Amino acid sequence: MTASTAAPARYRDVFGVPEFRTLFSLQTLQVAGDSVRTIALSVQTYERTGSSAWAALVFAAGMIPYVVGGALLLSLADRVPARRLLTRFHLLRFAVTAVLAVGGLPLPAVLALLVAVGLFAPVGGATVQARLPSLLPGDGYVLGRSLFTMTSAGAQIAGQAAGGLLLAALSPAGTLWLAAASAALATALARLRLPDVPPAARASSGLAGETWRTNRLLLGRRTTRGLLLAAWLPISLSVAAEGAVVPYAAGSGRPGAAGLLLSAAAAGMLAGNFVVGRLLPPGPRERLTLPLAMLTGAPLLAFAAEPGLPAACALIAAGTFGLAYELTVQRRLVDAVPEEIRGRTLGLSGSGLMTGQAAGIGAAGALGEFLPAGHVMALCGAVTLAACLCLARPLR
């Protein structure tokens, strides 16, 4: 049975798999806990230094080394059993957060600890994603991935909101201790609830060498290269528009509206993953991959006319609805590679996407120094549509 003829999966099907429930819980705890940690640490840093630059650097420190970990360490996802790797990863998160909660460290040491966690974050994510195709065959994989995307977005929003409320009731150190407690719970869940499954591949060479060799193989093959570019470019180029959201809101005379625009983006992404992942049958979902990818950029063109806040929120939500095209692309990517390199493949996809979004947002911010924010957002939409047309073959 092919992906286009398989029966749609149901939530009861995926949540009926015990290991999926554990991985789902680990993902939720990680995203929520890291969101609370990040906001608490940023506030604590600003209180210590009075510097917005230091606070921003601490906020982004966990993302900065993501590309390095993705380039050098991804083979761990296929060489180390999932239970052992995830237990140690969440134990590292607990140890780092607890040390930060104790406080008293100089800021370079704080950054070094955050970088250490960030280096292994893509490996932990790749390990989780590599287990899903085995646990959820057929259309269950698409539904499982859509659940992870929706829950990650929801947990991030909830974690940031909870962090703000906790900071109002507790000190930043107290909030960091709660984030450490969530990491400790994740460590226990990984150790006690995950099965001891053998790794998908045996070590054949050095860690970095094996990772680089696999990356070259994936990027050298036309099929996998096209699917990776299809997973990276439309999302990175359209999400780049978020780099102009704050100046767009400020230019409209309502600086606080940036939060509404970003919330609309999150709401659109949640809705898209629910509709495409749960309600669309596999056949129509496959056929709509290219139109959905183009939807990520098309609404942004209207920002050249500088629409008002309600229209801007609707346009951004419509664009992020289209991000659900990635569910089909990831399904095709999983089918295109053997199981023994699945973890590295999905890790490369994730680390490339993280890097592309960071670069796109930075480029949009730089363009905002020379162009009106609405024009920058419209330009992001135009280059997204151009990329989709160039990638029409892997997106069809």
TrEMBL record:
It is a multi-pass membrane protein. It holds the Pfam family MFS_1. The chain crosses the membrane at residues 53-74, 94-121, 226-250, 256-276, 288-303, 309-325, 346-367, 373-392. It is found in: Cell membrane. Its main location: membrane. Keywords: Cell membrane, Membrane, Transmembrane, Transmembrane helix. The keyword Membrane applies. It comes from the Bacteria. The keyword Transmembrane applies. Gene3D superfamilies: MFS general substrate transporter like domains (1.20.1250.20). This is MFS transporter. It comes from Actinomadura monticuli.
